[in-house]
Sequence to fold (869 residues):
Amino acid sequence: EKYVYNFNEGKKEMKELLGGKGANLAEMTKIALPVPSGFTLTTESCNRFFVEDQVIWTGLEMEINDHLKELEQSTGKKFSDMENPLLLSVRSGAAHSMPGMMDTVLNLGLNDHSVIGLAKATSNERFAYDSYRRFIQMFSDVVMEIPKIHFESILEEAKRKQGVALDKELDGNDLKEIVKKYKEVYLQETGEDFPQEPMVQLILAIKAVFASWNNPRAVFYREMHGISKLNGTAVNVQAMVFGNKGESSGTGVAFTRNPGNGEKKLFGEFLLNAQGEDVVAGVRTPNELAELKDLMPKVYQQLEIAAKNLESHYKDMQDIEFTIENGELFLLQTRNGKRTAHAAITIAVDLHEEGKITKEEALLRIDPQQLNQLLHPNFDEKAAAQATVLAKGLAASPGAASGRIYFTAEAVEAAYEKGIKSILVRQETSPEDISGMVKSEGILTARGGMTSHAAVVARGMGKCCIAGCTEMKVNEEEKIVKYKGGVLSEGDVISLDGTTGTVYLGEIEKSKPTLGGKFTKLMEWIDETKTMAVRANADTPEDAKQALEFYAEGIGLIRTEHMFFKEGRISSFRRMILAETVEERAKALNEILPMQKNDFYQIYEVMGELPVTIRLLDPPLHEFMPVKEEEIRQLAETMSLSLEELNGRINELHEVNPMLGHRGVRLGITYPEISRMQVRAIMEAALEHKSDKNSDIQPEIMIPLISDVKELSYIKAEIEDEIQKVFIEKGKSLAYHIGTMIEVPRAALTADKIAEEADFFSFGTNDLTQMGFGFSRDDSGGFISEYMNKNIFENGPFDTIDQEGIGQLVEMAVERGRITKPNFKIGICGEHGGDPASIEFFQRLGINYVSCSPFRVPIARLAAAQAAI
Ligand code: ADP
Ligand code: MG
Ligand code: MG
Fold:
């Protein structure tokens, strides 16, 4: 069996066997780029190393020896030579790049004798001893795990003694002295002399790389990222080239395009007279790559050509590591470069237009989740890095916000009137807080998870929100927040980063999102590719406009209850709920009717003939009741009731388990007049729009929380009767559709029957998950995170649909619904409608559309396109 491959034996497709770094070194060798020769010990050899109780078995040692001989031949140097020794780098590299693994050892092969030879052969004593001190330090650090600080302090001391600022200003004698001290440290820390035999050095280094595969950090990382099935790490052994030979040598990093904005121009940094990681380690401030053009025009040009070559070869932006030895360029690594969302779009679009990749490939190159970065404003990176972090919570809704903290919706509104920017801080929010949420810059809650009220509503509004920030103790009564290092009071300024969940003290500068022409292009390609439609959940004309700006193809869910919280309405609505007689209720409903009608008209005005699905009232009625004494007193007055009487009626609405209580269609069954009013508002608005604008609007009316077809038959008869009345009164009619949510497991199981009465289905996957698991959406955030920590769940079931269980309910309902009606239109309107992994699943089930909050629409669109490829 073969465990070692020469660089000229491999290729980029052999990542699993040679590791990412090894496969790409082989590929670069194959296409004749200047790569120092070397060989790779395979990931399988790492695997066997553990089977062999962590010894290098004879066969492997023989293979290493053979390849070493070949390397000596191709370089013309000898590994253990005392005159002009072959020096090596030993580099780890698994199939996936993986922090926590062993680092690189450079200049391996040097010892007390060969360092003298090297100094002579190169007539450069400084270089020889600089290489030796680096080798001792790296070997000690990565192979023997001697703390770096011992070596760093010696180096610092030497610089201080010589009165110089930079390593490169130390001369040969200084470095000789340092080497002596380094070896003393080594002896002290290990009880042994620094190994002098090159072959011993090499075997120790290889073993250390192998062993690092199973160090706890690496194991943890693999578990975290679900890549526990890999074989092991490869080890690359490569001839050294030297960037520390003087001012015509150096080392650097180059990106073939700008990773920040995607600009098609070489971008990077370099250092002269330096080696290895000096550039990234911040030993000295590196120079911009553009400066190399003046310093070494030839080398720069070579680098440009190599970069072009690599990019056309890999068909993606490359992140390249290079070293220059006495004016000669060498490439030491290449990989697909990390990039911002902005750069990702620019690069993908450009690469297609340059004819390098197909449209489909371009679409697959962009991570949908990453688009989040683009759609919301962000904090200026530098400013945020300098700000004080107060706490971390759940990154519930992305964006960046700064403002003064207030603890009630009223206080936020009052601040808004005065032109003060505010952050609403609460234990958790309720529907009552909506007006305050609208007028705040951002929302911070101490309790609640990713699907808590605050999180869902904030995402819907595209407003920044951090939820479940348990590190902060919110005291709404005293209007203070306690955090680890102190206390905040009303009016103090904080900043929220909803993309990371970080809470900062004070205001932080922001950068605005810009969606350029490339974004538009991307959206066009998405339309050409995807088969599933993407609608938005929107409750207001403003939300609808935002959704259209983000290329939504309709509205999949209007939550009509949100309309009742608007100013001037809540009082009528409360009177409607608390009415004891049908007449009283009718009177209050009559007050609400024109307002609802106007809401719908406005939304039709924005959406035109795009489909708009309106859900009838859903939440339990007590959610609309006032809680503050003052408000209760006012309401009692307007209703001419005593405080006691009113409190009595409010108490009657109380439910022990409201999520499983009197809500959804159950309200319509008890109070059909509410459903009738809503349907009348919808139809009158549509008819009016039709005659004003000659539009062909076909309202989609959606009944929530159905569990039995008979519920649907009942409510349908009621609302169709009302619709007929409207048609007769107005002397006009139009086409409409009455559909149902599938969100109670029983509805999914009996979907064939329900389909007989419904014109469409829309899955409320939040409730379906809640009822399928028996997890309360509002309370389960805390323990579900424990499930994730303990690997019981890989994903939160409210974030990504549970395909195995809840997914079966969806699949079954789709199948059964379509047995009854083969071309049945089926959508998704839960939070999962904006989650790429869930979208991929919905595509497989043949769902017609997903609907999500406006700010997730572009993400869902890209995910839908990718799912269709
Ligand atoms: P990492 O995975 O941390 O980037 P590398 O194996 O790429 O580690 O090594 C880090 C750096 O060490 C490289 O960027 C390069 O500057 C230097 N290096 C590695 N191998 C060689 C070599 N053969 N000759 C010169 N420098 C090398
Ligand atoms: Mg590297
Ligand atoms: Mg629901």
User: Anything to note?
Assistant: The radius of gyration is 34 Å.
